[in-house]
Amino acid sequence: MSADTGADRGAAAGAAAGDWETVIGLEVHCELATETKLFCGCPNAFGDEPNTNVCPVCLGLPGSLPVINAQAVELAMRIGTALHCEIRPSSFARKNYFYPDQAKDYQISQYDEPINANGSLTLPDGAVIGVTRAHLEEDTGKLTHVGAGGRINSAHHALVDYNRSGVPLVEIVSEPDIRSAAQARAYASELRGILVATGASDGRMEEGSMRIDANVSVRPAGAGEFGTRCEIKNLNSLRSLGRAIEYEVARQIALIDAGEVVRQETRHWDEAAGRTESMRSKEEANDYRYFPEPDLVPLIPDAAWQGRVRAAMGPMPADRRALLADLLGGAANEAQAEQIRAVVDLGLDALVAAAVAAGAPATLALARAANEVAAEGEAGLPLPAEAFSALLALEASGALSATQSKAVLHELAERGGDPAKLAKEMGFEALSYDGLSEAVSASVAAHPGEWKRYVDGDDKVSGVFVGAVMKATKGQADGAKVVAELRRLRSES
């Protein structure tokens, strides 16, 4: 029986069993946001014409010599600082392998002396994941396999682009402290936020700026020894990361339940098929025949340089989430916590803080930023904090309903301007109490069955009346005032 057949047969049952513990360690490759490559002056740019950003150094031609990029070293130190690592004297080594994505048949990396070591990352739920190391290395070129499946085993031929070869990377290796696919996603998401916050990377997984390898194994619950691990290569989205781990865990459990063994190997995630597939047996360090890079001296950032790096760093995502929680009074409910995470991930927390400082209600500013401003995307940014605050003031005062405020916000993001003037141009004005009361009474009369349920205590049915009133008033009514009027009528009935 093949490994994959065994996995398919028992995947669902095996994954659901509570007798197994998942052990995961992640290797995250982060391309640094430098202007040039790690050891030469070629541009570090995504999407350029293939094989145009190359030179004798990054192609490894005879007689060429690498020179370290100081900006890359500083960005690596920012990452190490943010991950609470020890920043150490480090050195480079040649990692030898023969593959067409590296023209010189070796990769310059850090092996036994990484620049960052012994760190940690705290997840939003408080779990702490150890960080073994975060070392500097150069990226490889990009291979495109041309064939039916786009994979090497079905390719008619392959194309190679060396523009990416030599781009500076930091590889961040976690301890095997992760215990589920969901926790792996949370780790990768938090790490991505840190990388962006430090300015070290843009974190664009779809462009390959951040790529993840997942080392996955299973063991009986309560066991002290690790099981045999498999490495899933080059996962380029959080969704793929979660799906790949879930599948691989189920596959390994099914194999063991069937009396077979898990082989240590490197596997590829097939997104379309929703499965991992064997690529090759797993390499060990001795397979790469590491030896010291003879053309580079040891890297020893002095204390003054490290101090300048620390002083220049802004707050990390966890600090920014805490600030928004403080604006809410320090006690965010589950929905607000999710809004806080979204606002920080999108870099909108400064907008919310500025609006609150100008007098806007914190809950309203957070909700509008997490929903409406986020929906506008990059086309609606940067949104002036003064205009955002003025719009929220109109909504909070009742001059605009929530529906009207959202419509004005869309126009504000599209073309800017003064919120009050935009509202007037759009024909928005506050609905009088008499007009609101009349509209609510009409909606009640039009829905007698729903009104009886509401009077009997079914508050959920209030949405029927709110929707009817909004339609009748063309969005001028305030939803909260509609509900208040409904409650008044119910108390009198």
How would you characterize the overall build of this protein?
With 493 residues, the chain is α+β, with helices and mostly antiparallel strands. Helix content is 42%, strand content 19%. It contains 17 helices and 14 strands. It has helices at residues 3-16, 56-59, 70-82, 181-198, 238-257, 303-312, 317-327, 334-345, 349-357, 362-376, 385-397, 402-415, 419-425, 433-446, 448-455, 462-472, 479-492, and strands at 20-31, 86-87, 93-96, 106-109, 116-122, 128-138, 142-147, 155-161, 168-174, 210-220, 230-235, 265-270, 275-281, 291-292. The strands form 3 sheets. Strands 2-5-6-9-1-10-11-12-13 form a 9-stranded mixed beta sheet, covered by helices on one side. Strands 4-3-14 form a 3-stranded antiparallel beta sheet, with no helix packed on it. A two-stranded antiparallel sheet has the order 7-8. Helix 9 packs antiparallel against helix 10 (362-376). It is elongated, with a radius of gyration of 28 Å. 37% of the residues are buried.
